[in-house]
Amino acid sequence: MENTFQITYKINTAISPEDLSAVFKASGINRPAEDLQRLQRMIDHADILITAWVNEKLIGIARALTDFSYCCYLSDLAVDKEYQKTGIGKELVRLVQEQIGEEATLILLASPVAMEYYPKIGFEKIENGFKILRKK
User: Residues 118, 108: contact at Cβ < 8 Å?
Assistant: First the structure.
């Protein structure tokens, strides 16, 4: 796709669970896109929501949880497949970093298909992590 579209980035602008569902589905990210109540809770409890728009269409999102002083967890980074490989994801991450400042470390869990992507936009792979997986 030729980069002829105008992207608008918004910081902590309200979005609907329907918009979030649509961008999750269009991006291919594995999220509970059909559970609108759960998506609303994901929106409500995020500390940072950076969104990318083409006109009135949400085409990208970075959703993060942070204390703004030591760490920030990038819970979601999703860009509509039609707009991927145009720098939107990298810009969403840059804007999250701008919001958290220089004291906080930005961390994330990558899906297996995204393992090649994150080093390209400045992330360093780490081996010292653990998880207790959610039940649903």
Answer: yes
The owner of tokens 């269009």 is: 26
The identity of residue 44, as a single letter, is D
Name the DSSP class of 4: -
3-state secondary structure of 106: strand
- The token duo for 15 is 């979005």
Mind listing the pLDDT tens digit for each residue in 89-125?
A: 999 999 999 999 999 999 999 888 888 999 999 999 9
Token look-up 């919001």 returns 99
Q: Alpha-carbon distance 80 to 53, whole Å?
A: 10
Residues in a beta bridge with 88: none
DSSP states along 59-102? EEEEEEEE-SSSEEEEEEEEE-GGGTTSSHHHHHHHHHHHHH-S
